[in-house]
Amino acid sequence: MPSVAVVWRHVVRAAGFATEAVWAYKLRSAFVVTAIGLGIAALTVIVTAIDGAERRTMEIMDMFGPDAAFILGGDIQSNALGKRTNTLSWSDVHALRQSLPGAYLVVPMRGQGNVTARAGNRNMVIPVVVGATEGYSDVWNWPLSEGRDFTEEDVARGAKIALVGDAVAEELFGDRSPVGQVIYLKDIPVLVVGKLAYRGFTGGGGNIDERVVLPLTTLTQRFNLDRQYFRALRVKFHEPEYMPTHVENLRSLLRHLHRLGPDDADDFSILTADEIIGFISMLKGGLVAFLGVTAAVAMVVGGFVLANLFYIGVTERTTEIGLRKALGATGWMLTMQFLMEAIILTTAGALLGMGLGMGLGQALTRLGILDIQFSGKVFCIALGSSALIGVIFGIRPARMAARMDPVSALRRDAGPAAS
Questions:
Q1: What is the pLDDT of residue 234?
Q2: CB under 8 Å to 375, separation ≥6 — which residues?
Q3: pLDDT for position 407
């Protein structure tokens, strides 16, 4: 039985022969690397998307609040032209505060879209200026990084003060603190009293950090908005583990307040953290299914390309195989050489695929679809999968080379001259 040192020497020599063969057959190598790379790219995005979606799910749960419901006026699932969206009123607020079981907080909010903000010689368009009640930070689970929150007195007197998001502070004030500075919203001067903590979340309305918050009364008065109706409600409940029951009670009470019949559709929409997370899970599931099929097909195709080209390669390299066996190479040495060639090619494909996957992942992150973050797990899965493909699809051509008779191989290559 050969010693460990002898076996190791044979392994090193086989690796050297495998590397030379990969370099010698560049076109074959390029086909295999590209085919494997496409599958690994899809696999990379799947793994990172699942990890990113799980992280984002927990972040959204924390930001939205597991004990909270958000009610929008109008049915957001029905986009019929002319559909009423101003269906929530102060009478709804008072009724919910008095009669909704389990609720300890009911507050209205409204918004004004696309407002130009100016501070000194800097300008930006705010996607939405929000009107809110006192204690915005606690009500909306959004801590302040600087300054103070609204008070009941601020809301009662319609104070011209504001809270600004992190992106607004950076755009209008750079490295300076925004607290104590004045910004102009459509030429209305407001004093910044607080800066909201960075969230880094992008939704359907754009970057959430591009937000300015005013007292509800200030927004209503200064922008001449309807004083009876508003766009949304925020409700918080005791015992968040019973959220499905709380939501059903909320829906039933609102339908009663709005005098909706049994066959009438809701004229409001209720969102909870569970529904948002379910939507993200649906997106994640669709992405995983699509990319999973793509990854499987691409990697299997890459494996068949590898196997077919190796079969051709064994036929073309009969002289090399015959000479090596004539000089003492054993079957397991040749098997090892061809398997190493396969693993080198699939590993190169894995590295290419991870590069492609990172590029696609960054694109998904910039679009705000998913939070893609790479980890050592991705690296290990990609290399492990590619090596497995190399072994599975390379073993039969390798065994075919190992079983080749050296005399027949040399005679076949010599042709008529040998006879």
A1: 92
A2: 48, 51
A3: 62
Distance CA 412, CA 403 (A): 15
Which tokens go with 235? 């409700």
d(CA 329, CA 388): 25
Q: Round to whole Å and give the CA distance between 402 and 360.
A: 41
Token pair of 365 as six digits = 């992150």
Q: Shortest CA distance to 386 belongs to which of 41, 47, 21, 52?
A: 41
Q: Rounded to whole angstroms, how far apart are CA atoms 140 and 138? A: 6
Q: How far is CA 265 from CA 23, 258, 269, in A?
A: 68, 11, 10
Angle at 157 between CA 156 and CA 162, to 5 degrees: 95
In the numeric block, the tokens 């042709």 are attached to 415
Mean pLDDT of residues grouped by 10 in the chain (419 residues)?
Answer: 61 69 73 79 75 70 81 70 70 92 92 90 92 91 93 94 95 93 93 92 71 94 85 90 91 92 88 72 67 71 76 72 72 78 84 82 66 70 82 81 67 50
- Residue closest to 41 by CA, chosen among 280, 394, 364, 283: 364
Burial 69-88 (b: 16+ CB within 10 A, else e): bbbbbbbeeeeeeeeebebb
pLDDT tens figures, 9-39? 666 666 676 677 677 667 777 877 887 887 7
Distance CA(325)–CA(314), nearest Å, equals 14
206-207 and 182-185 as β-strands: parallel, antiparallel, unpaired?
A: unpaired
Give the pLDDT of residue 411: 62
Among 186, 176, 124, 106, which residue's Cα sits nearest to residue 146?
Answer: 176
Rg value, the chain, Cα: 33
How many residues are given for the chain? 419
Token pair 């190796």 is at which residue?
310
For 301, phi and psi rounded to 5 degrees? -60, -45
Q: Using CA atoms, how far apart are residues 14 and 16, in angstroms rounded to an integer?
A: 5
